[in-house]
Amino acid sequence: MIDRRQVLQLGSSLLAWPAVKLFAADTPTTRSPDLKIIQRAIPSSGELLPVIGMGTSRTFDTDDSVQILSQLKDVMQVFLAGGGTVIDSSPMYGNAETRVGEVLQTFEQRPEIFAATKVRTTGKEQGVAQMQESARRMGVEQFDLIAIHNLQDWRTQLQTLTRWKAEGKVKYIGITTSHGRSHLELLDIMRREPLDFVQFSYNIEDRTAEQELLPLAHERGIATMINRPYQRGSLFAKSKGRTLPDVAAELDCDSWGQFYLKFILGHPAATCIIPATSNARHMSDNMKANFGRVPDAQQRAEMLRVFQAL
After folding, report:
1. CB 115 within 8 A of CB 144
2. Are strands 86-88 and 54-55 parallel, antiparallel or unpaired?
3. What parts of the chain have a pLDDT lower than 70?
4. How far apart are CA 82 and CA 71, in angstroms?
5. pLDDT (tens digit, 9 = 90+) per residue, 52-74?
6. Rounded distance, CA 201 to CA 225, Å?
7. How many CA atoms lie within 13 A of 13 on its CB side?
8. Do the strands 143-148 and 114-119 form a parallel or antiparallel pair, or are they unpaired?
C-alpha cells in the first residue's frame, strides 16, 4: 500500500514528468468542441453513464514504484478529462484494485467515479470478506457495482449482494463471464434473477453476444458492460497499416481503435465498454469514442463489411 512518503514523492515527480496535454493538437484526444459526450441509461434506475469506461485487468496489475504510479496517474487523468467515470476492477486482477486506490489517493480532490468490482470466491463469509477487502484496496465507502466474477458460486454471492443492495451497501449488482462456454448458464441466470448489470465479451470479430445475450439484456432491462472490445489487441494486427474507410469520418473516428469501439456502440443494448490500457496515449484515443456520432444499422453493416475484407 502506498504510504505518505510515496504520495509526496509521486506529487513531486509529477512536476518533472512530461505533462499529459489532454487536448493539445499533438494528442489523439483533440476533438471538435461541438461533439457531445455519449451517455446511456442503466435500465433499472435511469442513471446515465458515459459509454467508454476503463478496465484494469493486466494493465493496473503493477508494482508501486513512483514511476509506475506516475504513469498510471497520467492514464487516469486522460480518462477523467475525456469524460470517463466507470472504473472496473476485480480481486482477481492481482494488484489492480490497490493501484486504482493509490492513484485516486494522489488527487488533491478525489475524482467522482463509478466504482465497480467483482467477487470471485466460494462461501458466504469468504465473499463478504473479499468484498470488504476490495473496498479497502480501492478506497471506496460504497461500490456503485459489484458483480459475481465468472459465475463462481453465484447463488451464494447473489444472496449476499441482493441483501447488500437492499441495505444500501452497494448500488447495483450483476454477474460476468468472459467465457463463451458459460453463455447458456448466464442466459438462464439473466432470465430468472433480478440483475442490474451483466458483463461479457463482444467486439467486431467476436459477435456471439448478438445472438442472445444482448437481445435478452435489452428485453430484461439489464445494463451491459462490454469487455475485450479489441479481442485482447488482435484486431489491430488485422488493420495495421490500413487506411480508415470513409464511414469512419462519418462517425467522428480518426483511428481504428475508435472505429472498433463505435461498432460496439452501434448496438443499442451496449451500455458501457471497458477497454484497458496503461498507456496515456492509448487512453486518449479510447476516450475520443466517448464523443460524436454513433453508427446506424446501415453504417454498422458497412463497418463489418470493411473489417471482414481486411
Report:
1. yes
2. parallel
3. 1-33
4. 17
5. 999 999 999 999 999 999 999 99
6. 9
7. 17
8. parallel
- Cell numbers linked to 272: 458501457
- Cα distance between residue 205 and residue 202, in whole Å: 8
Does the domain spanning 49-308 belong to CATH 3.40.50.10790? no
- Can you read off the three cell numbers belonging to residue 123? 462461501
Retrieve residue 169's grid coordinates. Answer: 451497501
Q: How far apart are CA 48 and CA 39, in angstroms?
A: 6
Amino acid at position 26, single letter: D
User: Distances in Å between the alpha carbon of 105 and those of 7, 8, 65, 71, 146?
Assistant: 8, 11, 15, 15, 21
Strand order in the sheet with 170-176: 54-55, 86-88, 114-119, 143-148, 170-176, 197-201, 223-227, 272-273
DSSP-derived secondary structure for 208-241: GGGTTHHHHHHHHT-EEEEE-TTTTTHHHHHHTT
Cell representation of residue 179:
467465457
| Single pTM value for the model | 0.90
Domain boundaries, the chain: 49-308
C-alpha cell of residue 161: 449482494
Q: 58: which 3 cell numbers?
A: 493486466
Q: Are 280 and 74 in contact (CB under 8 A)?
A: yes
